[in-house]
Design goal:
Number of helices: 14
Structural class: alpha+beta
Number of strands: 18
Mean pLDDT: 80
Oligomer: single chain
Strand content: 15-25%
Distance between the termini: 101 Å
Strand order of the largest sheet: 4-10-9-6-7
Number of domains: 5
Shape: globular
């Protein structure tokens, strides 16, 4: 009893493989389940990477490859693969070293930086905000390998730089701040992974957007998640419903989630999925201007969950989509082609009016492709279930991308001109009505405008415009004529605000601008956001 006995016996290769077969099968079935759950097919996987010494066994490699239909990678040593991955991870972690002198150093400001830590692009936009007094200080940004230096620059409260990246590598930069004697008083590390997956998760391959209403019954894209953002992701936004929806009616709300360039037109992007809420789904009428709260969440496997909460009915609607799955609605496809064709015709007319012959030639070529697409679409039944609808959807997006590329420069020029015109007006308003904080805020906005305007990034210029509009409205609300004009306009829609209107009329008679402004703001808040923008533009002096 209790004695150890050593036994040696010989088994054949077949006997050994039969012994481990059940474990190999269960592991392979688990992989198949993971692929199915994530809507992935074998031809979408590059290879299976073997990990661990047991994967040296030829039977395991052969069975896995045959069962999954995916090539097995035998180029990487399975006994060191995990260690190599851990080394990459350790090499990508921020190094923190400090001396006693650095610990005791007190700097006159704080530094906040915004940039993508993982990207597929050749360069990365770095935005820096400095809180505090920057007078007399300079800064320099250097890449660790010596391949880039910003050179010595004057430190300001807002800094913008485009950082060139080494491809398929981890890029390390240092932001150093110097005093007027050339001493480094503060430094910050910047780490950007180019073309690599990081341990924190894979980057998003394309922008994810919502399609939202724009002026003139058109729609535009609203960026929710930017390309290269690290998965998983989650964001909640609140929007105003732009029309009243009666219970049991055919009216409704459509939340369309798209993948592609966030600066492009909606027709150029791929629709991932839609949530449709009709009057038949709601438990009471939804009034124009009421809130809808939309939450979008993307998992590491790129499943996209969208939920919409209606505050007036206390109802929530939810759907889950995957970019790999396609659901093309023929009716929506026809509508997109119709909108695209109308826009193309208008652009062609404008080009003819301007005698822009190069643009005319470009647009005629695109129009020719559009005509072919319309003919093919006419032959497609609305309830078509063949692959033809997918092919036509691809052609539609290709035509839309060509069209957007043709008009992109004009759109940029228009935005840049709009910004410069608005800046000129806001500058006068801030000088006349702005307090010190508002004047400083205006200076911060325009300090690095040249970087934004030269970036050819539409969304960045739109951000600048939004900031200027915020200051503009702050200044306008300080002017008695604007408040009186706004109140007079809002009187025209008195069905929901009789009490406020009654009070406002009394304040108007007494010329009590301060109280009238409060009443008018309350009235103004009752309008939908799109209507607010229209009203402010009407009542403004421009």
């Amino acid at each position: 009893m209790g004695e150890e006995i050593d036994v040696f016996f010989t088994i054949t290769k077949d006997e050994f493989e039969k012994t481990i077969k059940s474990q190999v099968i269960s592991t392979t079935e688990m992989i198949k389940k993971i692929l199915t759950n994530n809507s992935l097919r074998a031809n979408e996987i590059d290879f299976v990477l073997m990990i661990g010494g047991s994967t040296y066994i030829p039977y395991i490699r052969k069975y896995v490859e045959e069962a999954l239909g995916i090539k097995v990678n035998t180029d990487i040593d399975p006994t060191t693969a995990v260690a190599i991955g851990a080394t990459y991870y350790a090499g990508n972690k921020k190094k923190t070293t400090s001396t006693n002198q650095e610990k005791n150093l007190i700097t006159p400001f704080t530094i906040k930086m915004a940039y993508e830590k993982s990207t597929q692009e050749d360069s990365e936009y770095l935005a820096i905000k400095i809180d505090g007094d920057t007078n007399g200080f300079t800064y320099k940004i250097n890449r660790e390998d010596g391949g880039f230096s910003s050179g010595s620059q004057v430190l300001t409260n807002r800094i913008a730089e485009d950082l060139p990246l080494v491809k398929d590598a981890y890029n390390f930069f240092t932001l150093s701040v110097y005093d007027n004697h050339g001493n480094i008083i503060q430094s910050e590390n910047i780490e950007i992974s180019q073309g690599k997956y990081t341990i924190s998760g894979q980057p998003l391959p394309e922008d994810i957007c919502f399609e939202v209403d724009d002026s003139d019954s058109k729609t535009k894209l609203e960026l929710i998640f930017k390309k290269n953002a690290t998965l998983p992701l989650k964001k909640t936004i609140t929007k105003d419903i732009n029309k009243t929806i009666k219970m049991n009616s055919n009216d409704g709300i459509i939340i369309n989630v798209l993948e592609g360039d966030g600066n492009a037109i909606p027709e150029a992007n791929k629709s991932i999925g839609k949530i449709k809420i009709s009057g038949k789904d709601i438990e009471r009428d939804i009034l124009k201007g009421s809130d809808i709260e939309i939450t979008l969440e993307i998992s590491e496997s790129r499943d996209i969950s969208v939920s919409a909460y209606l505050s007036m009915t206390d109802q929530e609607f939810q759907e889950t989509f995957n970019p790999q799955n396609r659901d093309v609605d023929v009716y929506q496809l026809s509508h997109d082609v119709e909108v695209l064709s109308e826009d193309l015709d208008k652009s062609l007319e404008f080009a003819k009016e301007d005698n822009n012959y190069q643009k005319i030639d470009e647009l005629y070529e695109i129009q020719s492709e559009m005509t072919k697409l319309e003919k093919e679409l006419d032959s497609l039944d609305e309830d078509d279930t063949t692959d033809k609808r997918y092919q036509l959807e691809d052609k539609k997006r290709a035509v839309a991308k060509d069209y957007y590329a043709s008009i992109k420069d004009e759109r940029l020029n228009k935005l840049q001109k709009e910004y410069l015109d608005l800046k000129s007006e806001v500058e006068k308003l801030v000088a006349q009505y702005g307090d010190y904080a508002e004047q400083e805020y205006f200076k911060e906005i325009i300090e690095n405008e040249s970087v934004y305007l030269k970036s050819n990034n539409i969304s960045k210029i739109e951000e600048l415009l939004e900031e200027l509009h915020t200051i503009q409205y702050q200044m306008l609300w300080k002017q008695p004529d604007f408040v009186r004009g706004m109140f007079a306009h809002l009187i025209q829609d008195s069905s929901r605000a009789n009490i406020l209107l009654g009070k406002g009329l009394k304040y108007l008679e007494r010329d009590n601008i301060e109280e009238l402004a409060d009443i008018t703001r309350e009235l103004f808040s009752l309008l939908a956001r799109e209507e607010q923008n229209k009203v402010q533009n009407k009542i403004g002096f421009y």
